[in-house]
Design goal:
- There is one protein chain.
- The protein is mainly α.
- The protein has a single domain, classed as Farnesyl Diphosphate Synthase, CATH 1.10.600.
- About 70% of the residues lie in helices and about 0% in strands.
- A two-stranded antiparallel ribbon has the order 1-2.
- A hairpin with a 2-residue loop joins strand 1 and strand 2.
- The two termini are about 25 Å apart.
- Bound molecules: geranylgeranyl diphosphate.
- The site of geranylgeranyl diphosphate (GRG) has 17 residues, from helix 4, helix 8, helix 9 and helix 10.
- Geranylgeranyl diphosphate binds next to helix 4, helix 8, helix 9 and helix 10.
């Protein structure tokens, strides 16, 4: 049975989200050598109303492994920086060409393409600076940088994006689509959980349980994302809908139909929740977050 989220969980998630937003604000004040237009463009995209799912996963994983979430805040913010860079670049006219993001004009619409590309570049670089300077001990910081760079790189997020850009609906099948999303979306979910566990210096069994949870959650998240593009409300989502069908993209609803896609997402969330069994009651908040991913409307 799928465990649902509860209002104490939502209050807790709101508290943690506020902590994340405050830290992101502090990380992007910059000195006078940062041009003000670059600072404004970065802050426009990074501090906008994102759900902060990935940093929440980092911090909840740290707590699930018995450590204090503040120890992992730099890693949580780094993951959000990489994620926001990917959104800024994904919205560019040469990629998904989206004018709306997080309920406001996309970065290139407000600041122009050149500044948007550079804002993304700066965020990607800053993610690794943030971990290197903010995670202790240094061996754990190195491992976090290593894992995050792999998850964001050519064989994961960027590689998945390339295959997604080239994917043709007519030629595709669910295995191809899963392979794309395992890299494009899933790798960042997985690494978020892994960084949380690494900061807590968790043992291998905890790391493996969180990794398995991340794989299943990431795929379920993408299926729900595809369903929201078909049925979701632009106002709640803060981004355009109907774009996948318009662009003839290979998606789960296009390949499997909406009902089967929903069933698959539910099955994955159930399996994700089961994967947390070794963590026992320490993982209650992650269980609730999984339910939220299934039920979300934005
Ligand atoms: C451009 C290098 C590069 C990579 C892009 C992640 C990605 C790859 C593109 C994002 C575009 C997109 C709509 C992907 C599908 C799922 C996804 C990652 C949605 C956005 O994540 P949310 O819903 O966004 O967590 P918020 O704004 O809440 O953080």
């Amino acid at each position: 049975m799928i465990q649902s989220s509860s209002s104490p969980f939502l209050q807790y998630a709101e508290t943690v989200r506020t902590e994340i937003d405050e830290a992101l604000d502090r990380y992007t004040l910059y000195d006078d050598d940062c041009p003000s237009v670059l600072r404004d463009a970065i802050r426009h995209s990074l501090l906008a109303a994102g759900k902060r799912l990935r940093p929440l996963l980092v911090l909840m994983a740290t707590e699930a492994c018995g450590s204090q979430r503040q120890r992992a805040m730099a890693a949580a913010c780094a993951v959000e920086m990489v994620h926001t860079y990917s959104l800024i670049h994904d919205d560019l006219p040469s990629m998904d060409d989206d004018d709306l993001r997080r309920g406001q004009p996309s970065c290139h619409v407000k600041y122009g393409e050149a500044i948007a590309i550079l804002a993304g570049d700066a965020l990607l670089a800053q993610a690794f600076e943030t971990i290197a300077a903010g995670i202790q001990p240094p061996e754990v910081a190195v491992r976090c940088c290593h894992e995050l760079s792999r998850a964001a790189g050519a064989s994961a997020m960027v590689g998945g994006q390339v295959d997604d850009l080239q994917a043709a609906l007519a030629a595709g099948n669910p295995d191809d689509l899963e392979r794309i999303h395992r890299r494009k979306t899933g790798a960042m979910f997985r690494v978020s959980l892994r960084l949380g566990a690494l900061v807590a210096e968790a043992d291998d069994s905890m790391l493996a349980a969180l990794d398995d949870f991340g794989r299943k959650l990431g795929l379920a998240f993408q299926i729900i994302d595809d369903l929201l593009d078909v049925r979701g409300d632009e106002g709640s989502l803060g981004k355009s809908t109907g774009k996948d069908a318009e662009q003839g993209k290979m998606t789960f609803p296009a390949l499997l139909g909406e009902a089967e896609s929903r069933q698959l997402a539910e099955q994955l969330i159930r399996q994700a929740q089961e994967a947390l069994t070794p963590l026992d009651s320490g993982a209650t908040n992650l269980q609730s977050l999984a339910w939220y991913v299934l039920e979300r409307n934005h």
